[in-house]
Amino acid sequence: MSYYPEPPYFLMFAGFAIALAAGTAFAATLKLIVANWSSARAAATKAQLPTGQLIIPYLGINVGILVFLSAGLEIFGFPSWLATATAAPLTLLIGLLVWYQLGSMLSFVEKKGFESLDLDSWR
Question: How far is CA 110 from CA 18, 20, 39, 46, 86, in A?
């Protein structure tokens, strides 16, 4: 008799919850850092991402996404090793691209100010 395990629905929801919780912590930390940076901008401080404060929540987001993607692929019938082998490079690539984009947006704001990010105005 063959054993057919249940799909990992719990892991999918757990990965989503991990990413959501870490994303909330990341957003709060980033808002605090940007608020401190913008208030101290007159002191001509260099805009850099303080990786010590942001890396733990950001890694939590990526771990949650990895678990979510891997479990989602397993639900569709992929073996565990193949689901993880597919989800890991996707998560790593997306995570690196988002981190790079965040750094470039911060340097853009440093050069042109926060008003340059206002996408609602038609000037």
Answer: 32, 29, 12, 8, 37
Is the pTM here over 0.85, yes or no? no
91 and 65 in contact (C-beta within 8 Å)? yes
Domain count for the chain: 1
pLDDT, tens digit only, all 123 positions of the chain: 556 678 889 999 999 999 999 999 999 998 888 888 777 665 555 556 667 888 999 999 999 999 999 999 999 989 999 999 999 999 999 999 999 998 888 788 777 777 677 766 665
If residue 33 lies in a helix (H) or strand (E), which one and from where to where? helix 9-39
- What residues make up the domain containing 93? 9-40+53-111
Residue 79 zone, left/alpha/beta (φ > 0; ψ -120 to 50; rest): beta
Report yes or no: 76 and 8 within 8 Å, Cβ to Cβ. no
Burial of 75 (0-12, 13-18, 19+ CB in 10 A): middle
